[in-house]
Amino acid sequence: MSYFTRLVRFIPKSSASSTTATVTPLIGEPVDPKLDVGLASYDSKHVEVEVYSGPSILNPGEKTGKKELVDRLLSPLAQSEVGTIRCIGLNYVNHAREVNMPIPTTPTLFMKPSTSLADPHPEPTIIPKSFVKDNAADYEAEVAIVIGKEAKNVSEEDALDYLLGITAANDVSSREAQFAQSQWSYSKSFDGACPIGPAIVHKDQISKLSEVQISGILNGNTVQDSKLDDLIFSIPKIISFLSQGTTLQPGTIIITGTPAGVGWTAKPRITLKDGDEFRVFVSHGVGTLINKIVEEK
Prior knowledge:
The protein is mainly beta. It has helices at residues 37-42, 79-82, 93-98, 129-132, 175-179, 185-188, 235-243, and strands spanning 6-12, 26-30, 48-52, 63-74, 85-89, 108-112, 117-118, 125-127, 137-138, 141-147, 163-170, 173-174, 194-202, 213-218, 221-227, 253-255, 277-282, 287-295. One of its GO terms (biological process) is oxaloacetate metabolic process.
């Protein structure tokens, strides 16, 4: 039996009158197990949470018996907890086909800094003014995994022992900058380029990771839709590969690739514009990550 089913990190309504700088976020489990907390929060509906005693999803403690209403959802992990975000590129079979690239035989790794981590709505996704002129901002719906304990030289067979759970992410990208370089980090590392949330679901609540469903929805239209059975490199393979010779600390976020349907290769091409809204839905209780796009002036 896992010590939690799913958790959210949030600012409670009881602290809403305080300044953000003085509020300590809480960790807790939504009371309604079927509630999509991302959609409910976006629609200003009550999201009631059983508060845990711990300060982090990495150390949640126990249920306190206290309940709070969510005022604002935060990313499940704080920037100070994640170190460098690992990112796997070109990791869905159908995405590789849509971009006319061969199926890779080794995972492609790039990284985002912790400063790219961002919250769900109402925090916006800001396209920096240095990239706005390119008209090349793109979405990438992704399943994010969180490492729960220190992992190094882990075998593929043992890899899931080190997995804490899954959440949703959007690997926001600037395509002109991406394809102007051989390394992708610059084009994907700006502030807010990795919103995650709204909830983290414990691995023990998912009997088959391959059955996890992910969708990307742009302005109400589903543009990406897949299960993890389309992954080229499975989650155990990714964890094992990244841990070879390298210590993955608790709190490490790994985003696992995006399915087919990105905007840059769509016909006609789709790019993110000021006022757009992008949603990432992940099944099994993760819910819907929502962010509105703002172009920096």
